[in-house]
């Protein structure tokens, strides 16, 4: 029996020929479905200035998904903290936790979740906010934990609420910070696997127990495409690889139907770049997923696997979630 938890990451990706509303409805459908399957949590990711991603107002979408479900934890994977005032984040997530007690997670990242021009618009031309990531996390914790009625600035709602904070990252810097602060750590291996091995080792070796966590808690976010057969899974996975090719070439497209060959077939530079971004991708039938993902978890002592799902067909998308659950638990 595997002991690690299983969760999902969603970006409310817009499918070809459909609308933003359709994408949000699809996210809700996935959340309800995996809740019934017994997944631990679903996280929504903050992105900006991306035409085919509908999760930019992350806290609003978290509230919508939490309101349409009953048990599954719902959170941010993550809120890009340098884009926001810690006080505003404390108030937003304090409100969410008040509305949906015991179900809200606050995952925090340092990247802008967009391009540099958009980051300047978000941060009002102050790109130095990323250098205060650690300080902003500590400020957030103080808002949640404050018990001094004379404090000049307080977070309502937020104060006195137990909202778990997770550090998100794709580099060794985030691993060091999560270890130093004694917080759970989620690594974005689904698109930036290059430093995964090193970051995992640093986090576990450097971890300092805290009042939040007595031992390391490590989440690996990866791409998993499961099908009734490995051949079907490989076919379905072309939608995922074609999206990454669009990111690399700056020709972003909506989530599109699978293709017989990836759209960059025969272009070595793009092939290498896509492989570099998707090295932590598992594709296959139930037996293949069970073997490969379980081995991955054992090798890196992972506490929780968080899977993406970029399958175009609605029925195949939900079936993949079920196959993954059956394979891993």
TrEMBL record:
Membrane-spanning parts: none
Stored SUPFAM superfamilies: Bacterial luciferase-like
NCBIfam families according to UniProt: oxido_grp_1
Family under the similarity heading: To bacterial alkanal monooxygenase alpha and beta chains.
Start and end residues of each Luciferase-like domain: 14-296
Cellular component GO terms held in the UniProt record: cytosol
Domain of life according to the entry: Bacteria
A single GO molecular function term of this UniProt record: oxidoreductase activity, acting on paired donors, with incorporation or reduction of molecular oxygen
Protein name: Luciferase-like monooxygenase
């Amino acid at each position: 029996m595997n002991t690690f938890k299983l969760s999902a990451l969603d970006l409310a990706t817009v499918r070809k020929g459909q609308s933003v509303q359709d994408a949000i409805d699809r996210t809700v459908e996935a959340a309800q479905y995996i809740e019934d399957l017994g997944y631990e949590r679903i996280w929504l990711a903050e992105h900006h200035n991306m035409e085919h991603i509908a999760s930019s107002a992350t806290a609003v979408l978290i509230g919508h998904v939490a309101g349409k479900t009953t048990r599954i934890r719902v959170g941010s994977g993550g809120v890009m903290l340098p884009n926001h005032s810690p006080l505003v984040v404390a108030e937003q997530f304090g409100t969410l936790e008040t509305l949906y007690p015991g179900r809200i997670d606050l995952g925090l990242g340092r990247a802008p979740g967009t391009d540099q021009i958009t980051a300047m618009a978000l941060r009002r031309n102050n790109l130095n906010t990323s250098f205060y990531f650690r300080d902003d996390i500590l400020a957030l914790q103080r808002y949640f934990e404050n018990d001094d009625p004379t404090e000049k600035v307080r977070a309502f709602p937020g104060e006195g609420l137990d909202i778990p904070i997770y550090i998100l990252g794709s580099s060794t810097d985030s691993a060091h910070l999560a270890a130093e602060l004694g917080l759970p750590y989620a690594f974005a291996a689904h698109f930036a696997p290059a430093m995964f091995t090193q970051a995992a080792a640093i986090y576990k070796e450097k971890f300092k127990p805290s009042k939040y966590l007595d031992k390391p808690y490590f989440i690996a976010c990866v791409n998993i495409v499961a099908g009734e057969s490995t051949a079907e899974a490989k076919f379905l996975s072309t939608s995922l690889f074609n999206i990454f090719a669009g990111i690399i070439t700056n020709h972003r497209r909506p989530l599109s139907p699978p293709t017989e060959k990836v759209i960059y077939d025969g272009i070595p530079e793009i092939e290498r770049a896509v492989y570099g971004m998707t090295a932590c991708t598992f594709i296959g039938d139930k037996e293949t997923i069970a073997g490969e993902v379980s081995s991955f978890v054992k090798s890196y002592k992972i506490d929780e696997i968080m899977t993406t799902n970029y399958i175009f067909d609605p029925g195949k998308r939900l079936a993949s979630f079920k196959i993954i659950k059956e394979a891993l638990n």
